[in-house]
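CO-FOLDING WORKSHEET

Operator: S.A.
Ligand of interest: zinc ion
Run index: 170
Mode: holo prediction, single chain
Checklist:
[x] sequence pasted
[x] SMILES validated
[ ] output reviewed
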Amino acid sequence: MSHRRAWMMTPLETPPLPLTGGCQCGAVRYTISGPPVVFYLCHCTECQTQSSSAFGESLRVRLADFDITGPTKVFLRPIAKGGHQTCTFCEICGTRLTHQRDGYGDKLNVKAGTLDDAQWLVPAGHIWASSKQAHMDLAAYDLVYPHQPETDTDLEARWRAMTPAWHPEG
Ligand SMILES: [Zn+2]
Ligand SMILES: [Zn+2]
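OUTPUT RECEIVED:
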């Protein structure tokens, strides 16, 4: 029997699938036809730089559920432990749309601010809290990791519990 935590939370009012989104100029559009695997925020300094803001948003989806159209360009960011992260942008307006790490072959992370409707989002947790900007108050969250968690198992389990309409099996 797998370990389960009794999460105290109100389920999210998840929107109907597919989720849709795109870049700032409208040339690149995408759809997400299956339930996202997890949503979390990253406060590492790389994410502060790449977002030119306070944190990075990762809405992880299965590649099989993801469809993107329009002119894109990629930037291959070297990763400290080897390999690359493929960062995809609109070629015209430069909006950053997705990240995919080598080795995450069947999933990618959508930069969730590009969803047409992002208001329903609540993160399952926060990673790299040790380098967060001082004004970010994470006291309300159960899952706050000072650095990279060893696995995303707990983040994914909490996300499933937060989104019962998408994960009726729990
Ligand atoms: Zn664009
Ligand atoms: Zn980060």
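REVIEW:
The domain at 25-158 is CATH 2.170.150.70 (Metal Binding Protein, Guanine Nucleotide Exchange Factor; Chain A).
Strands lie at 19-22, 29-32, 38-42, 56-62, 66-69, 72-78, 84-90, 96-101, 107-110, 126-127.
[x] output reviewed
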